[in-house]
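Notes to self after the Tuesday call (sharing in case useful).
The group wants a holo model before anyone commits to mutagenesis around the pocket. I volunteered. Ligand is 2-acetamido-2-deoxy-beta-D-glucopyranose. Logging inputs and output together so the record is complete.
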Amino acid sequence: MRPHTTLFTACSLALSAAAGTTSVDATTKNANHIFNVIHDSMRQWGSSLHHNGVSFFLAVVPAGTQLYHGTSLSTPVNGTEWLAFEPEHSLVFARPHRGPPPRRPDEGEGGDGSWEGRHEDLRRDRHDRRDDQSSKDEDAKGYLHTYAAAKHLRLLYIDGMSAAKTDKGTLDSQDALLFDNTIDMNQAGKPGGPPGERERAIRACEMAQDDFAGRIDGILRMEAGFEIILCDFERDLVNVEIVEVASHESGNDRDGNGRKGPGGPGGPGGPDSSGWARAVASRYTGIGGGRVNLNYEHFVTAFSYDLDLFPEGSVHPRLNHLDQSDLQRIRKDITSTLLTHDPREFSWNWQATTDMIVLRYSDELSYLSSDKIETTEQLSKHINKLMAPFTDFRERNASAEADKCSSQFIPHTLKDVRDIAALAVHEVAHRVCSTLIEAAAEQDLVSAQKGIKSLMAYLDWTTWKECRGCQDNEICAVPIWPMGSIEDYEQPQCRDASNPYGNGGESYWGREPRH
Ligand SMILES: *[C@@H]1O[C@H](CO)[C@@H](O)[C@H](O)[C@H]1NC(C)=O
Ligand SMILES: *[C@@H]1O[C@H](CO)[C@@H](O)[C@H](O)[C@H]1NC(C)=O
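Result:
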């Protein structure tokens, strides 16, 4: 059953947002997913749980924003490299390259999941590639570079956990879609050769020039922290400072087996694990500081095409099974969006609208579906109170009430707008409102609550996995590649911030990161 909508009658008119190949039907069908795409964007929490991104946004990082780069080199970068938003993220890479990473004692058993042990997985991937050419330039030291954006940086944001090198689908939107399956994974075998990462960066910057007419400066992705692949450091950044990091950062705290040396995790003055975990967790609800602005009126999402993104009952969306022609269709729409819209143009902040809806109804739905509700009277009384603002008691009309309730959060001036965000947000709001109204009218408590529970399954809001009441020394631990267990995904818990992933359990990401 699909609730009717009066404002947005479903039909197959093309959406304005993306060159006429997306459909209103698909957007309405996938409204829940698109709503979550908007709500999760630039947030470490939602993007970790919904880790397979299939969407592309125009993004701007304002001039002056400070960004970080960790390396074994003490001179400013010239060319294409990685930048982090949090200095703690860059510290992981502010170490010399010392041959292949040590084999972890736990390897082959699915990983110990420890934060410190897993640093190496991130690091061995990349960032220190340049050491191959210049290993003699520097002796066993690491440097943290601070840069500031010299202008408003125009970026293509690839959503989800798109910098996580997994085979769970986190790379589909890049490798299958954007880069047309041309990334050479065999690179992985070469010394210091990151598994396709360098090539992704090169391809992205070539596309920025050739396909996107120089209209973007790089791409924006997420792993344990948000990061930018910036094509031209020298042109787009001001170097603020370069500091040598404590020698413990240089790997002296490890023996050849990759075990921690004296001083425990990180060691005194070493890479402070709790600092990094907290730095990541502090961005759960948003990158903060107005450091990234997305265009929610003109973006491209595979969810707005008439495609099956959940092959063989996949829990998370995939793109690697799609036909070339479908991938090409989406790629063309990304290009035309980039060519016709400036990332800096004003757009309505639909994420703020999704926030109002989620914050208003998240706890209410959870409560109404719980065993704290014991009778139908209790349920309908509570729902009637929720719906009171939308009820005209002179003339009760359930469908009019659902319509009023679902347009509450949508700016009146945008009520007839038919872009992807507007359609998806309205559809989701309408589902919430109409399901509540139906539940209030049910005679039987079990079926009333069943309706609410199936609404919650449909919505799949990540707020329902948030921890409650963590202590000052704890963070809510959710799997963030390469860390975390299956249990951490199913039910994130408050964990000691100095070792949030030390509880063992089977790795969420599988035995080995992808190469
Ligand atoms: C950076 O690279 C460009 C192109 O290779 C070169 O023209 C420029 O002089 C370099 N700048 C510095 C400071 O090395
Ligand atoms: C109820 O409201 C809808 C508009 O939402 C209207 O089309 C319909 O005619 C109304 N029904 C009655 C019985 O007034």
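Two things stood out.
Residues 478 and 489 are 6 Å apart (CA to CA).
Residues 78, 234 surround 2-acetamido-2-deoxy-beta-D-glucopyranose (ligand 1) (CB under 6 Å).
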